[in-house]
Design goal:
Layout: E1 2-8, E2 13-19, E3 24-32, E4 39-45, E5 48-54, H1 59-71, E6 84-91, E7 102-103, H2 106-114, H3 123-136, E8 141-146, H4 156-159, H5 166-171, H6 180-194, E9 203-208, E10 212-218, E11 221-225, H7 247-256, H8 260-269, H9 272-277, H10 283-289, H11 294-318, E12 323-327, H12 328-333, H13 335-342, H14 354-359, E13 366-367, E14 376-379, H15 384-396
Helix pairs in contact: 1-3, 10-11, 11-13
This protein binds adenosine monophosphate.
Adenosine monophosphate binds next to helix 10 and helix 12.
Length: 397
Amino acid sequence: MIILVINCGSSSIKFQLFDMPSKKDLAKGLIERIGEEDAKITYKHNGEKLVEVLPIKDHKEGLSKLAQVITDAETGVVSSLSDIEAVGHRVVHGGEYYSSSVVIDDIVLKAINDCADLAPLHNPPNLMGITEAINMFPGVKNVAVFDTAFHQTLPEYAYTYPISHSYYDKYKVRRYGFHGTSHSFVAGRAAELLGKPLSEVNLITCHLGNGCSITAVKNGNSIDTSMGLTPLEGLVMGTRSGDIDPAILFYLAKKENLTINDFDRILNKESGLLGISGISNDQRNLEDIQDSNKMAKLALDIFDYKLKKYIGCYLAVLNRVDAIVFTGGIGENGHLSREKSCSDMDALGVEIDTKKNEETIRGKEGDISKASSRVKILVVPTDEEGQIASDTYQLVK
Ligand code: AMP
């Protein structure tokens, strides 16, 4: 069964074609800068890469371009669009409606639309991709895979904020958590590596990319996670602040006459590694200059310290932990962050093997803990698209 996976952002479409159930990667690509004269499509298949810059007006045109490259006589991997038997969509917010993936119908479309208030940057483009795919592939089943679904097992005391309960009653203000597809995928793979059923493992999964989140997994279920109502809470990120004292906002609002929109921009786009360093949101760039640049080093130190604090929290929450699992661009490659966030924790049963850690980069899977470490430390490359394809296959086969 050939399955197309689509991840629509506000100005981008990421896509991948899989042959299921073998999960064979047939082709993948990215369309960026939708709405611009110089939009760009990058497309990879059979070890070849095609890059084209062209005007793409909207997501509808983007998907037509996608359809053209995958069916083209030279670059195509299917002879016609009717070869595609299902489409899996990444949807960021499923609110309290969905704790697992679902086949999309009118009720699901309405629910995704209802959650747009909670994820105004993500759900509307996700919905646009779904609507276009429904038109483009008539009669084909579309499946929604939600970033929030895995965290719907959080207990009430972990998802409720300590503010007036009326805000939950009226507006559903609560912790939802994100990156669920990734946390769920690496938890499953970690259980396989540990040789135990998922329902018997306790894990701390760290998804560290441009966005970062950490999850406490008990007996295979998410029981706490660092992102909250939105993906702004928790760890330090590329450009997002993560946790700060909320009173900083009142103080700065008075000092600098800042508005809600200013804070939205400052905390989401101008904080985190970029805000502290004043140089870059990219870990690699900061690591390269940290010996000579004090602010780059400080940014990395704060990132690693916050990560270590959350690991400590979740060790307490879980008590028995089988493994700490690292994934995402930084989690899979950033051996310095892994080392700093797991060092000096031998009394808590966490002992990192520095040599194995340094050797585990670029998509490699591995155990980077010392043989004596009570808590294993694993690196597991994430595969969100593959997981979306698997969920889609399970629901439509
Ligand atoms: P992602 O959002 O998962 O693509 O991850 C992006 C982040 O991964 C950026 O901060 C990159 O700097 C970081 N990253 C990628 N490769 C490396 C590397 N070799 N060392 C440190 N960080 C890396």
